[in-house]
Design brief:
This is Phosphoglycolate phosphatase. By secondary structure, this protein is an alpha/beta fold. The protein contains eight helices and six strands.
C-alpha cells in the first residue's frame, strides 16, 4: 500500500496559479511587454516559471531579466492572498495519516508555503518538508526527495511523489518511488509515465 505521500505545493496542494500568472503578467507590463494571461498560464503549467522567464527573455532581447525576476517575486507575494487548497487535498492528507502513513512537502517555494499551510490548518498533517530555504537542487533532481526518505526512514515501495507537472513525476521516479500526476485541466503530456493520473485529488484515496 502506498501511504507515504510526497506533495508538490503550487498547483497540487494549493491553487496558486492565478496569483503567479497575474504577478508575471504585471512584471512584464512594467517593462512594456504585453502577454495574455492564458499564454503565461500554459507555459507555467506545462513547464515552469523559470522556463517562462527564459522564453520571454529570448523573445524580447531588451528585457531586463534580473528586474523581471525581482518584480515577479515582489508582486507574487502580494497576489497570493486567500489562496485556496485544491478540493480533496485535506481529505487525502487525512486519509494518509489515518492509514498509518505520512505526508511530506517538497516545494521550490520558501517559508510562505509553510505559512499558507498553517493558515489552512493542514500543516499538522505533514511529518516533514523541504522548501527553497534548504537550497537543494530543483526537481527533477531527486536530492531533496532522497533527503526526506533517508531522514524519515521511508520504504520506497510505499512512497509516491504527487505533482501537477512532468518534472514532479520524473523527480519521484529518479528517487525510486512512484509518481502520481494531478492533471486537473488535462493539459499535461508526459514522457515519464505516472503510475496514477487523476483529475481530482480525492481519487487518490485507495478504496
Amino acid at each position: 500500500m502506498v501511504n507515504n505521500y510526497f506533495w508538490d505545493f503550487d498547483g497540487t496542494l494549493f491553487d496558486t496559479y492565478p496569483g503567479m500568472v497575474n504577478a508575471f503578467q504585471k512584471a512584464l507590463q512594467l517593462q512594456n511587454i504585453s502577454v495574455a494571461g492564458e499564454e503565461i498560464y500554459q507555459i507555467m503549467r506545462e513547464k515552469s516559471v523559470r522556463q517562462a522567464i527564459q522564453l520571454y527573455s529570448n523573445l524580447n532581447p531588451s528585457l531586463n531579466v534580473d528586474k523581471l525576476k525581482e518584480n515577479y517575486t515582489n508582486l507574487e507575494i502580494k497576489e497570493q492572498v486567500n489562496v485556496k487548497l485544491f478540493p480533496g487535498a485535506k481529505e487525502v492528507c487525512e486519509w494518509v495519516t489515518n492509514n498509518g502513513g505520512h505526508n511530506f512537502l517538497l516545494t521550490h517555494r520558501n517559508q510562505s508555503a509553510i505559512d499558507m499551510m498553517n493558515e489552512k490548518h493542514v500543516l499538522n498533517l505533514f511529518s516533514d518538508f523541504v522548501t527553497a530555504n534548504q537550497k537543494f537542487p530543483r526537481k527533477p533532481n531527486p536530492a531533496s526527495l532522497n533527503y526526506l526518505v533517508e531522514k524519515n526512514g521511508v520504504d520506497l515501495q510505499t512512497a509516491a511523489m504527487i505533482g501537477d507537472r512532468e518534472l514532479d513525476i520524473a523527480a519521484g521516479h529518479n528517487a525510486g518511488m512512484k509518481g502520481y500526476l494531478f492533471d486537473f485541466d488535462q493539459m499535461i503530456t508526459t514522457v515519464e509515465v505516472p503510475e496514477k493520473r487523476v483529475l481530482k485529488l480525492i481519487d487518490l484515496i485507495e478504496k
